[in-house]
């Protein structure tokens, strides 16, 4: 049986970039000590979630990829023999920036990066001010322990993205993410939003027959007006919750995934086999009408 142990690092962040990187490395070490083979960090873990405002000074947080953060994490990956999934603010060129995740293999090698494809522009999530939509397409990375697909936060709402990633051969889909509640909302609205977020990602697991690992930040930011809701989780290939983090605490957890379940589920619930690919051409339209 092919089993892989994945580490989920749910943490709070500060304004100090180096402090956040150092903390993440400590958490990676904790996960590795618990047996993790692949460790996923949350979206933009080296900073507070700065997209709550449109501020040109925040571009100073960006860096080259590969660059200083990946250099530091490559050393850790090699030392510990673990794969690290690291979500960073990429400076591609002068005036050109992406929300990007780098993948570092267990021997410390840099395998490549995925640039976030779907970019939100909501109150307190003004990402289109900072990030150019990804142009690398959807990606899978053949690591020492599994072939992994990476999608980032807002990508999580799109079944097309998860389907393509699964069709490229991903054994596991990872979602580094940063999402939370406005603190002036009522509890029913909070719960509805969280349930929608978790449900859509679990549905990707069910539809594609692959495990999903979603890692979210936690804690109050934006001068207390935003509570990042944590709630990181991992599913098996049928969408069953194997682990669910709290909404208010830092957690470093390791979950064992049975990758052989994907073959079993796809044989018994053959959603991939039964797709009518000959009928899907209209999905490339923005909307199906007469215009």
UniProtKB/TrEMBL annotation:
GO terms for molecular function: acyltransferase activity; N-carbamoylputrescine amidase activity. InterPro entries: Aliph_Amidase/BUP, C-N_Hydrolase, C-N_Hydrolase_sf. GO terms for biological process: putrescine biosynthetic process from arginine. It comes from the Bacteria. It holds the Pfam family CN_hydrolase. Residues 4-259 form the CN hydrolase domain. Keywords: Acyltransferase, Hydrolase, Transferase. SUPFAM superfamilies: Carbon-nitrogen hydrolase. PROSITE patterns: CN_HYDROLASE (PS50263). This is Acyltransferase.
